[in-house]
Amino acid sequence: MPHPLSAKRHQRFREAVFRRDHGLCTLCGLDCGRLQAVLDSDLYRYHYNEIRKILREHGLPAPARGYRVWQIDHVVPITRGGRTLLSNLRLLCLTCHKAVTKDLKKQLVTVPDKIRDLEINRAHGQS
Ligand SMILES: [Zn+2]
Predict the structure, then answer these.
(1) pLDDT at 91
(2) What mean pLDDT is reported for the chain?
(3) How far is the CA of 25 from the centre of ligand 1 (A)?
(4) Which candidate, 38, 25, 18, places its Cα nearest to that of 86?
(5) Cβ distance 7 to 62 under 8 Å?
(6) Ligand 1: centre distance to CA 26 (Å)
(7) CA of 2 relative to ligand 1 center, distance in Å
(8) Strand ranges (DSSP E) for 34-124?
């Protein structure tokens, strides 16, 4: 899906959400700002595999070098009419964002079933 925002506007939203949420994942509370600082340091360069292993063992995001440990998420997804407003955005660590996105996809898979149920109900004279 193409991103509806320009890169510059997107960046502004990212910064505003990060500030408002104090760099914390709004689901698990991970201090993404602190973790990012570690991953941006030389320590991560020299001990890349060891640090990634520790992060994974603790269920924490372990992105490749140069990538962020957090993303902004739409509370009400765009696919459900959610808008890109500060009030509908939240900071999530990569791990939580992945889980939320997976759940959403799982829910969307059931949409054809729900539509089919509507057809069946209509056939039986219910509305
Ligand atoms: Zn999280």
Answers:
(1) 98
(2) 89
(3) 5
(4) 18
(5) no
(6) 7
(7) 25
(8) 70-74, 89-93
Q: Average pLDDT in the 63-85 region?
A: 92
- 90 Cα–ligand 1 center, Å: 11
Q: Which of 60-69, 82-91, 102-111 has the lowest mean pLDDT?
A: 102-111
How far, in Å, from the CA of 6 to the mean position of ligand 1? 26
Give CA–CA dist 62/98, Å, rounded: 12
Query: Which residues, in sequence order, are bridge partners of residue 74?
Result: 89
Predicted structure pTM score: 0.78
Dist. CA 100 → ligand 1 center (Å): 10
Q: How far apart are CA 93 and CA 23, in angstroms?
A: 9
